Model the fold of this input.
Amino acid sequence: MNVNDIKHAGLKKWILDFAALTTPEEIVIADGSSAQYDELVAGQLAGGYCVKLNPEKRPGSIAYNSDPSDVARVENRTYIAAQSKEAAGPTNNWIDPTELKKTMTGLYKGCMKGRTLYVIPFSMGPIGSPIAKIGVELTDSAYVVINMMIMTRVGLKVLDVLGTDGEYVPCYHSVGKPLAEGQSDNGKWPCAPLEDKYISHFPETREIWSYGSGYGGNALLGKKCLALRIASVLAHDEGWLAEHMLILKITNPEGRSIFVTGAFPSACGKTNLAMLVPTIPGWKVETVGDDIAWMKYGADGRLYAINPEAGFFGVAPGTSNDSNYNAMVSASKNSIFTNCALTEDNDVWWEGIGYDAPGKLIDWNGNEWVQNKGDKTQKPAAHPNARFTAPAAQCPSIASEWEDPKGVPISAILFGGRRPKTIPLVHQSHDWNHGVFLGSIVGSEITAAALDLKVGTIRRDPFAMLPFCGYHMGEYFQHWINVGKAAKDQSKLPKIFYVNWFRKTDEGKWLWPGFGENSRVLKWVFEACEGTAKTIDTPIGVMPTADAIDRPEGVSIEDMQELLAVDIDGWLKEVEDIRANHYPKFGDKLPKELATFLDQLEANLKAAK
Ligand code: O2Y
Ligand code: MN
Done:
């Protein structure tokens, strides 16, 4: 298909205008076909950008190494360019949109010289779903095209849904490395220096402009940029929820199922939980999504969620058959690997894959690397943020409903973080607003000195949305309260829980084994949703009785008591920290319901002392 065949006049003009600015050699429409995917991969292999993996070990898969400066999302170059700084709020980087567009237009001028401009029409969510949204990404990166083909639904069917005047989120992307006449990348990952990288969001006009990075969330614009930052603004204005949440299905031994969403800050094992293999006999966990959930009310008054994505962009290091068997199978074929190490027989390897490095490797920097377990200072062979891009359909635990256009009805919402002390294994909110309070205080303990935060302090990441909320976070809290109020029937709202798999003893030993054993907590959540759980009311919420959750091997009765105790003094310190350091950030946008709840919680705790 040629750009001139596009029936949507506005879209065609927008593409041609960007081409006139960026001056690519040619324009190619991503049609979503496997033939085009194969052709793009062949071009990438011929250009030396990636290597083909051993077809016996990893069929249909390739591996890239990025530039060492382009390995993760760059939060300090990520902007919410709202009309006012107030609209972006205290937790986002703000720049004046007019200024930013001027700067970025300057950068885009001629930036695709010597390259191809790819047009990627993509749907976030099953094509045609009433909850789905369409985006069109213009990019000069073939790596982005093939990753988007796995992570989203790309192609001509999306253009059909757009018709002659349908709405789409316009997304510009360039690696920011024009090629002079006769120049080539020589197989090197193209990107711009950090000071020229911009990951920009214009919430009022629902536009995304990205420049200078070819990696992950900076470049695959359907994910964090559209499905979270822009979608959170759309959701606010349209009365739904765009969340950084996994979606899973739990089925009990009698065959009854519920669907659960969960928000966790990064490095809390969200993908592992989404693909969990239960240790309790007869129970089943299936995956609907591992990162993002869009939730809207259905006609029956329940909240329904879709996974807007079609693939997983998972962290490779630490993923093994033991920690996440389903992710390993998902990435066993037809996958793209970025910044993993290469074995001599052209497979990928990473730290924590579950077996020693087989012989001499090529590390993610392209250097020879031989594992030396005695050397604790040895640099890792794979980058800690190395990724696999794998089709969700390949996941053995994928739920049959994962592409249901109407979504799945949500019975429970989980929040969690890494909290070695105070926060119990699980507790349930009394009601929706109490649940919003729990979401608003999500945080993880700082385990290594980072930025200006001290080790042992809590880095708050409300709703795990801190880097992803496209507007003022105080208004986002209010939006959650409003969504709860809008329920036709309060009893049909999902129940809200706070879980913590990361409790430790004073000696630093884990109190809870985590991974598949978390199914024991999911079972209690399931029972709480059915109204059959053994519960006790406490000053912090509803909790399991001491015998409500079966103990896994290695967890003593005393450990369980500690995991389920209400640490009054710890919680009073928590209240103090929220009141002194967390809530004041949101100024007069902090919903009064949350301030009142904090006072009430303090009074409950003091009364119980
Ligand atoms: O480093 C990146 O660009 C990827 S970030 C990411 C990828 C998949 C799922 N979640 C995240 C995240 O940062 O939350
Ligand atoms: Mn994420």
